Amino acid sequence: MTHADLFSSAELGEYARLLCWGLARSRRTPLRKSELVQVRFDLPALPLAEELYDRLLERGLIPLARMLPTPRMERDFYDKANRRRLSLLPPGEQELMDALGGTITLLAPPSLAHLQGVDPESIALHRQSRRPLQESASLREQQGAYGWTLGLWPTPALAQGAGIPIHEYAAELSRACYLGAGDAVAVWRQLARKLDGLRESLNNLGNVRVRVEAEDGSDFSVFIGAQRRWAGLTGRNIPSFELYVSPDWRTAQGVFCADMPLYLGGNVVSGIRMAFRQGRVTSFSARHGQEFAVRQLMTDEGAAQMGELALVDRRFSPIQRRMAHGLFDENYGGAHGSMHIALGQSYANTYAGEILRDEQARQYGFNCSSLHWDLISTARRRVTAFLPLGERVIYEDGEFTL
After folding, report:
1. Which end of the chain has fewer surrounding CB within 10 Å, N or C?
2. Which residues lie closer than 8 Å to 388 by C-beta, 6 or more apart?
3. Mind listing the pLDDT tens digit for each residue in 164-173?
């Protein structure tokens, strides 16, 4: 099936234009002429990568195209590489990161479970080798010198995971990104203004304790934390409807359940229930993929600690079905909205100061890890904030009540 069977030429052009807008929005400062922008893509997304390449050239930027490893390449790497190879950061990778003005990544997985049976320790070791690049990217983002965004391209594996034909999958993607709206960027700018208003109301709550109670058995609380600001529609993900914050991980207490299947490192995990005590995961169970998931929580010290709390208002998200990929599933609207927490790395853009350095991260309870794993729940829930003058419900049955 060719791209013409999935998207019209107009939709393809709008998608590329929207991703360029997302990249620009993700940066604190505008991209300068002749800055280097990396376009990373899975092979099936080549039509969109080519369109983006052309658009970036038209904008006076220098695109650098880099194809991501195929499922066979990934499997062969983990099956045959020793510890030295798994932990090696190839020469030039750090220099490239320090030179980039931005990255656009096009995710089009040909397989969702090709790494099942691979030693989870090998996957964690390789992820840790990329940690210097993550730290460099985060610092340069905060300095206004770097930005990034992600987009998704339909594949048979994604469509099969979602239980729908691939042409329906493409139609859902187009609808969620408003590619048929005539001017998708204008629609997203209007949505950003609405979410910015909600974000301001959440910021006005300050460092409060919030309690999450849901019909799936979730019942946990966490403090938002000092020196925090909520973020949303930053341009980093297209589409994106969540409002999120990196809470003080040290204060997480209680039980969280996730009903959406989760995809990490070529593995699928589903039916999750976990308990937090004094900020750390003390028990974890899953109906499928438990051994792999538990090993990921041992990646490093911060892997079993909370890095993100996010809520999606059903009034804004048109995503009504599971799409078998975290980029979409974490933005699920549905009947009751959705929420997700992430285990692992906190987001520096939720720090209210200028630059989040190690000292501030430790002081304010921002988590540090090479892992960032979103766990998604679509159950009906209530979120209560405990303010100095009493309790206030801030989210209920899929909608913010601010």
Report:
1. N
2. none
3. 999 999 999 9
Residue in this structure with the two tokens 């900020």, named with its chain if needed: 279
**Cβ 322 vs Cβ 367: under 8 Å:** no
User: Which amino acid is residue 218, in one-letter code?
Assistant: S
Average pLDDT of the chain, as a whole number: 96
What is the mean pLDDT of the segment spanning 254-262?
97
Strands (E), 206-279: 209-214, 219-223, 231-232, 242-245, 253-258, 262-264, 267-277
What span, in angstroms and rounded, lies between the C-alpha atoms of 355 and 349?
9
168 CB neighbour count, 10 Å cutoff: 14
- Name the residue ranges covered by the structural domains of the chain: 3-184, 187-400
* pLDDT confidence tier of residue 349, bands split at 50, 70 and 90: very high
pLDDT of residue 265: 84
Is residue 106 within 8 A of residue 48, CB to CB? The reply is yes
CA distances from 336 to 195, 196, 274, 323 (A): 18, 21, 21, 17
The phi, psi pair for 254, rounded to 5°, reads: 115, -160
| pTM (2 d.p.) | 0.96
Q: Which CATH class is domain 3-184?
A: alpha beta
CB 369 within 8 Å of CB 303: yes
